[in-house]
Amino acid sequence: MLITRVIPCLLLKGRGLVKTVRFKDPTYVGDPINAIKIFNEKEVDELIFLDITATLEKRPPPYQVISEIASECFMPLAYGGGIRSLPEIEKIFSLGVEKVCLNAAAVEDPDLIRDAAKAFGNQSIVVSVDVKKSLFGKYEIFTHGGRRSARKEILSHVRRMEELGAGELLLTSIDRDGTRQGYDLDLIGRVADAVGIPVIACGGAGGLNDITAAVKSGAAAAAAGSLFVFHGRHRAVLISYPSREELDAAFPAAPDRET
Amino acid sequence: MIVIVDYGVGNLGSLRNMLKKIGQEALISQDPQAVGKADKIILPGVGSFDHAINNLRSTGLVPVLSECVLNRKIPILGVCLGMQLMTGGSQEGELPGLGWVDAETVRFRFDESLRHLKVPHMGWNTIRVRGASPLFEAMAEGSRFYFVHSYHVRCRAESDVLATTDYGGDFVSAFARENIAGVQFHPEKSHRFGMRLLQNFVEKC
Q1: Residues A183, A161 contacting (CB under 8 angstroms)
Q2: What's the CATH code, domain A5-240?
């Protein structure tokens, strides 16, 4: 049966890897190719790379960097950031990437999700949803690196994305990003209940127990940033990933979870 | 020379990247002459069955591929949809497949009790190898592979089944008959397990 996927989510700013806290204060953590080489050795289940400034700077995806990343990845790879059109998606796939993450485009041009799913298959289209809790405790969707409110109701948005053909949702809690305080389990539960497609939880993982909790709340897979790039209270940069044995122990009921 | 058949479908760069990692140069080509000179052929593929078989036929490569595979017995490895194209046909489409192995491609169907299983079958899963095959030689215990597919192969001859995988029941995750082999998973995205398989194909098949 399927293994529960645990996915490092790495942020690109220019040619460097960074890590944010609540989508702010990007700290440089190293060279992406170097990180991939380590993640290859650690045999990670999958990798997600997000260019966090492409949409803000109205830039197309950085194909050269993506190509360098893809040529080193011996695991499935997803890329997101600045994607606006089918030809851009096609170009990214041609570089050796398996999946694309669409965030702002999914809000502003939902037809792209449908067209892309039709052209490349649902399994290759990930819709990424960044969520912040308002002062009144209401979940709100943001795009452009958490700067622009999408003005969409979250559950109707994710259901619509599923209808249009999204194969997976990457659900990120902006409030928990980089905090290592644990995932927003309430958010995960609500979204996972609303859709049939796999939900990848992201934002807040501080340890494997958080990932187990996310899966119990309905996530099919879990992504994390800080957990895999920082070590200790002083956030020293150290690329790490749990061993297969640790992962197997963290998901005793894994066979039925991803399903 | 190893030739990765390019017919406008799929992720060829990652196959070449992994071969390069194990010290093998591969040519990505849709030139019938180059394919005709290959001593190892990889037939990749992602997307839908009819679209892929149409594309493959329109490249004019089918006659040369058939000559290589059926008459000259050049080793060939079908990957994912490439494996399915080697069968007689698929429930996904209406067009006939290449018919090189006595098999058909069918959609995942589950009993009521397994309705929670999702299609596509996407993610890492393990395989159970049946009998000895050079393709799975020296494969580490607990080898796992990355799968993404909604349809799977059903072999008519048990002896063609090389490995099975459990997803709501066992399905054929690898087959082989003489020089023709196919794997449903993506070795090029399966770390050292996939590397070992590709290396076995290049060196031992």
Answers
A1: no
A2: 3.20.20.70
Contacts of B21 in chain A (CB under 8 A): 74
Cα separation, A39 vs A18, whole angstroms: 16
Rounded CA gap, B73 and A41, in Å? 36
Mean pLDDT, residues A109-120? 94
List phi, psi (to 5°) of A9: -110, 115
Residue B177 Cα, gap to closest chain A Cα (Å): 26
Mutation target to probe the A interface, by most A beta carbons within 10 A, among B110, B124, B151, B192 is B124
Q: What is the token pair recorded at A107?
A: 């809000």
Exposed e or buried b per residue across B75-96, where buried means at least 16 C-beta atoms within 10 angstroms of its C-beta: bbbbbbbbbbbbbebbebbeee
User: φ, ψ for residue A185 (rounded to 5)?
Assistant: -70, -30
Token pair recorded at residue B5: 């058949």
Crossing angle (nearest 10°) for helices B12-21 and A63-70:
50
Taking the alpha carbons of B150, A2, B185, A100 in that order, is the dihedral positive or negative? positive
List of residues 6+ apart from B92 with CB closer than 8 A: B48, B49, B50, B105, B107, B150, B151
Name the 3-class secondary structure at A87.
helix
A2-29 confidence digits (pLDDT tens): 899 999 999 999 999 999 999 999 999 9
> What residues of chain A lie within 8 A of the CB of B46, using their CB?
121
* Residue B121 tokens, joined: 């079958």
Sorted by where each starts, the structural domains of chain B and their CATH numbers stand as 2-204 (3.40.50.880)
- Does the structure show a pLDDT above 70 at A89? yes
Q: CB of A87 within 8 A of CB of A116? A: no
Active site residue B92: no
Cβ–Cβ gap B21/A74 under 8 Å: yes
DSSP helix/strand/coil, A190 = helix
pLDDT in tens, B177-201: 999 999 999 999 999 999 999 999 9
What pLDDT was estimated at residue B189? 95
d(CA A189, CA B54): 43
pLDDT tens digits, A144-153 = 999 999 999 9
